[in-house]
Amino acid sequence: MNKSRARVGPFDPLDRSHRTLKQRKGKVMKTRVGIFSVLAMLLAPLAAQAGQAKVVLDVHHAGCVLCGPIVKSTLAHVKGVTGVSVSQADGNADVMATVTYDDALTSPPAMIKATTSQGYPAEISKRAKD
């Protein structure tokens, strides 16, 4: 005798085929999570390379009272700079600017370009390398 069951709604609760679909979806999800985990582990060293760095710049022609704050403001507005301190002008009208920055976002040449465009040519300090 043929036993037929009546379907209840779109899914038959006694039909086991939907369970295998759920199992397949679960396996796909686990695979995706695994792939993203591996990618995160591979990309983590790249993120670790980017970080805080510090450079000391000799900024020339900055002997007036307002020059130091102008240099400081100019460097602070460079994207990626997180801190700036500027010394008092020496006898040659030069100041030393110590800049902390995110090396993934900016570089010393970008900072030198910014100060030079404001009329204060700069270079990486030779005193800082010693």
Polypeptide structure, described:
The protein has 130 residues and is α+β, with helices and mostly antiparallel strands. The protein folds into 2 domains: 14-49; 50-129, 2-Layer Sandwich (Alpha-Beta Plaits). The protein has 4 helices and 4 strands; from the N terminus they run αβαββαβα. The protein has helices at residues 17-49, 67-76, 108-117, 126-129; strands spanning 52-59, 81-86, 95-102, 122-124. The protein has a 4-stranded antiparallel sheet with strand order 2-3-1-4. β2 and β3 form a beta hairpin. The chain is rod-shaped and about 90 Å long. The termini are far apart. The model has no long low-confidence stretch (mean pLDDT 80).
Count of discrete domains: 2
The 3D shape can be described as rod-shaped
- The SS-based structural class is alpha+beta
Looking at the overall shape, the CATH architecture of the largest domain is 2-Layer Sandwich
Biggest pleated-sheet summary: 4 strands, antiparallel
Proportion of beta-strand residues: 15-25%
Secondary-structure element sequence?
HEHEEHEH
Characteristic key phrases:
130 residues, alpha+beta, Alpha-Beta Plaits, 2 domains, four-stranded antiparallel sheet, 4 helices
Give a brief outline of the structure.
The protein has 130 residues and is α+β, with helices and mostly antiparallel strands. Helix content is 44%, strand content 19%.
